[in-house]
Write a structure and sequence with these properties.
glycoprotein, binds 2-acetamido-2-deoxy-beta-D-glucopyranose, 14 helices, alpha/beta
Amino acid sequence: MAIWVVVVWFAALTQLSSSSIITSPGFPSPAIKSVHHSKSKGKLYEEKFYTQILDHFNYNPASYHTFQQRYLINQKHWGGPANNSPIFVYTGNEGDIEWFAQNTGFMFETAPLFNALLVFIEHRFYGKSIPFGGKKTVAYSNSSTLGWLSSTQALADYATLVLDLKHNLSAPDSPVIVFGGSYGGMLAAWFRLKYPHVAIGALASSAPILNFDNITSPFSFNDIITKDFRSESENCYKVIRRSWQEIDDTAAKPGGLEILRKAFRICKNYISAGYLQGWLGTAFTYTAMTDYPTPTNFLNPLPAYPVKQMCKAIDDPKTGNNTFKKLYAAANIYYYYSGDATCFDLADDSDPHGLGGWTWQHIHRVLKRFGSNIIFFNGLRDPWSGGGVLKDISKTLVAIVAKKGAHHVDLRFSTNEDPKWLKEVRKREVHIISKWLSQYYHDLADSSNY
Ligand SMILES: *[C@@H]1O[C@H](CO)[C@@H](O)[C@H](O)[C@H]1NC(C)=O
Ligand SMILES: *[C@@H]1O[C@H](CO)[C@@H](O)[C@H](O)[C@H]1NC(C)=O
Ligand SMILES: *[C@@H]1O[C@H](CO)[C@@H](O)[C@H](O)[C@H]1NC(C)=O
Ligand SMILES: *[C@@H]1O[C@H](CO)[C@@H](O)[C@H](O)[C@H]1NC(C)=O
């Protein structure tokens, strides 16, 4: 889940296990450097707005308000209503929908196989889908306005928009399949459970739906990060572990903060041991989450298998026994890989992906044991997999688990360097989706006989 606030939120839920390498109690801002909106990809979709209802569950006059909800649409491969061709819908996460669309190559790549229409819907309160006249300061001003920011309302938004779109397209019988990664994956799964008449199936990638209601060990998130690094090398694990104490000790000495500032090339701004530790913790956490097999530009530009690269930097004999030099080299993999920063700005509070409102949602839903047609994908190197569905629940609630997989790696655009296991995962997902569709068309043909 590509979001620092999530980590903050999670840190609140997560106690620290004694052997974990992530020991800082909270994480500061992510220091994500830029939004990687590539202009060349602008033609992937068309941007549209829909007049959405602010409150789906209340008839108070205050709830009659509407807002403009953004969605992106790609009709290039759609077979049209005459063929009842399918509609693939991405249930937007907590952020700018363009960013998620551009990182969900799986939908673009499978659309031609299924003659599918693609729709990416932005989550309310994010990106350009801000209620209260698009004014973020008003929308986020207090608990009354933020009361309309909930996953339940968001799901109702998606249902309303999808039904209206189908109506406009005169495609009442086109089957809908929902997709999502991370929080978007939870929404996709919940959408299928809650609106089974709107979506015939869901692909929920890296959706930690079991992180709620005490189902998952509170240690699992940091344990997985720790295991990711430890599996590279024991030394790497040890260096990271002892570094927290060394930073504390150094910071406590006279002139210690200046030593730390120099060692980590921090720009001349606020620095403390906790901030520095949080900054490093963020790098380890996101690197574990995005430990993809190919170079990526999802959160920050990263090389292939960045955890391995970090440990290589830490294990490099050239840095001898100098913990700070080792950590600096490791942090560089995450914060510096594109090589365009001159010093690191710890106090940078920017939230370039617009992910800030996340902590407001209280999502307390247990996985329902009813339901069908949901694929849960999880990569076990992803710290969020600890809260994922890792075992089949039924014949049609299927878990696909990739030992070497990271955070919703299956949904990303494919590349020539993709390993065989990743190709297999995607093939299996396509196969399951085609089974849902054939079943649907079969049932549709049957019902027309009545
Ligand atoms: C919350 O903010 C809205 C919009 O700015 C305002 O109309 C309303 O009075 C505020 N409510 C409270 C309880 O402060
Ligand atoms: C459906 O068409 C109406 C009328 O043109 C329009 O206002 C509405 O936004 C459309 N719905 C969607 C989802 O685009
Ligand atoms: C979660 O589990 C722990 C340990 O079993 C227990 O102490 C705690 O009260 C539980 N919390 C909730 C919200 O059920
Ligand atoms: C490296 O440094 C750590 C503490 O800074 C120390 O415990 C360890 O013994 C040192 N190892 C070597 C090989 O010098």
